[in-house]
Amino acid sequence: MYLALLVIFLQCSELYSQKRVFTFNTVDIKVQPSVKVKNGAPLSITCHADISKSTDFQLKHNFTVFKDGKLVFMTVSDKRDARYEIPVARSSDTGDYECTVEAGGKTKSSNSLHVWVTGMTKPILTAEKKEVLEGEVVKLRCELPEEVPPLYFFFRKMKMNSTPKEKSVFESQRNFSVVEFPVEEGDNILQFDCFARRNVKLEFESSEHSKKTLVTVREPFIKPTLNVKPSSNITEGDRIQIECSTVVARMRDIEIILQKNKTILNSVRDEKLLKYSAVATLEDSGEYQCKVEQGRASKTTKLNIVVSELFPKPILAASVIKLDENKELTLSCSINGFQKANFSILRKNSNADIWLKNSKNLTMRVNVNDTGSYICKAEVKGIVKESKPVTINVYAPVSKPTLSVVSGLPEVVLGKSLLLICRSVMGTPPITFTFYKGNKIKETVVNDTYATFLDENIGQNDKGGYRCDAKNNHSSGMKTSNILNITVIVPIKNASLGSVPYGEVEDGSETVFLCSVKEGSWPIRFRIFRKTDREVLLFEKNENAHRVVWRREAMNRQDTGTYYCMASNRANVDVKSHPITISVILAAWQKGVIAAFVLILIAGAVTLTLWWLLCKKKKAKGPSMEMSGSALATNSPNEKLTRQHNDGDYYSGSGYIEGSENHMKSTDESKGPDLESAEVEYTEVEVSTLDPHRAPVQKGTETVYSEIRKANNVSPSYYGKTSHPICCAALLTF
């Protein structure tokens, strides 16, 4: 029974689960009243889930709202809608909103929706102090509590009848900023405000300006007073006294400075009064400034002082400013409309002026060392004035100039540049040098003791006629150098090498080498090299000619190789010829010796061959054995003699034995029954045969089976006739 109930329960659960089927169609997000609302207005964000179900059953929905990826709202509801309320929208609520719904293990999100809360809250500005001194700073803080960074803050400093001064600060991490404004001279009542900006979708949005903050400025000291005595009609030689004073609220760190044209004349510290006294001169006229400083505060008073001239500056006159040495010079000093003065004449020097005479006039005979600047001074009532300097130039005559080539030797390579130097050992500078090429002026140079001239692209005709002149302000006039002739060096061109004989040279014979150039200035350095595995200098000679001949008397096999020559002159350019190849071969007599030796060897070989053939022939014809004709006629393998020639000819052994058989028969007849009764023995004999077309080369051997009867009484002389020991010895030797 329990089993049945369990089965029924499982079936019901399966049916129940099959009925609870749902799916998300869409998830939407909406904003009311619109996606763009004003700052401070209410804002409502609704999330709606569109779900399809198989039956009507309850489903829990988890709603989550995100702003710019951060969770801002979450709720659980049986309904398909959820609402996120913002009673007072601020600019910080601007952003991209997205809704996510989760139910029954399924999740779906809406599209993103941008909401823009326009306008920003009004910033709050506070000042650290409401009252400050000149030279201090005003510290301000601007804050937007309800806004979120990043923010741009702008601060303004305003005062009466002045353009506001503005400072800006970017804050990326906080919603407030702090700045400092210095309090300057003349600031009395200051007003400050601030506002902020933010960037929304590449657009800037600004807040309202904060309330103005008022700051009062107090003076740490009053503007200084500047007095001068005497107050008017100041003349050179009078003593003037200048006083600068102020009233200070606090004496600490107070400083008074007196200036004239940015030059500090005097200063005091921690005092209320400054004094300055001096004997007035014409240079003391100008604007004086008294400045009082304390911390950052500063106040200034200016006063213009005019000093009348007691007497004008003296004037120094010279009888002449350019003169020859050993001439007289007169200097005179005077003051226009003023005679009562103490005069002195001096020569200017870098260290100190050199006194010459206490007088209005000075006459002296000058030399070169007297060249320089001269002045005169005049003194009246302790006032000393100096004249403008007068420059005197004393000239020594120039010496005869010398013209030379800078490189040293009076020569130049064709097509190159020639640098000349004209020098005058003596003479007071500046000296004017003039260069001539022929009768034409090429260049004029003003210098102290020498000058250079560059003549470019020298040709073959530019060989002489250079000179230079030198002159200065001396009355003696111009001096001329000697004429300088130049050697133009023509570089080597087109070197070539030849030989006689050319190409092949007999061993031990003489070879003549000829190295020549197309053009080039003499002397010419000729060198001949042989190149095999290394370069070897064989010949070297300096020649006043365009060619050189070198004789190599006895050539040998080691002289085989590649030859070339190299030519150079003072142009310092080595010109290399094309290489030629020399092969050393055997001489005629050496070839004759070798030919004779070869012929002797050939004759000896022919002689031995003929000898061998003769011996072979004699051996074949000798009656050394008896052959049976009947035996040769049989088909027995031991009695058949055949020969297969290499070229296919057939040669029968029976014809070769026939003569011998007849001879043997006649002999047997003369012997009688003794020979007939002898035993027959078959002996294998190798017979060498010669190719009649290629004697004496052995082409092969033939085997002859002969029938030899044994006889007890065969004469030994019979065998001697067929042995031929001399022929055999000759064949062995060959």
From TrEMBL:
Residues 224-306, 312-391, 401-485, 491-583 form the Ig-like domain. The chain crosses the membrane at residues 593-615. It comes from the Eukaryota. GO terms for cellular component: anchoring junction; external side of plasma membrane; membrane raft. Pfam families: ig (PF00047), Ig_2 (PF13895). Gene3D superfamilies: Immunoglobulins. Residues 625-645 are annotated as: Disordered. InterPro entries: Ig-like_dom, Ig-like_dom_sf, Ig-like_fold, Ig_Fc_receptor, Ig_sub, Ig_sub2, Immunoglobulin_dom. The keyword Transmembrane applies. Coiled coil: none annotated. One of its GO terms (biological process) is immune response. Residues 1-17 form the signal peptide. Keywords: Cell adhesion, Cell junction, Cell membrane, Disulfide bond, Glycoprotein, Immunoglobulin domain, Membrane, Phosphoprotein, Repeat, Signal, Transmembrane, Transmembrane helix. It is found in: Cell junction; Cell membrane; Membrane raft. This is Platelet endothelial cell adhesion molecule. The lineage of its organism: Eukaryota, Metazoa, Chordata, Craniata, Vertebrata.
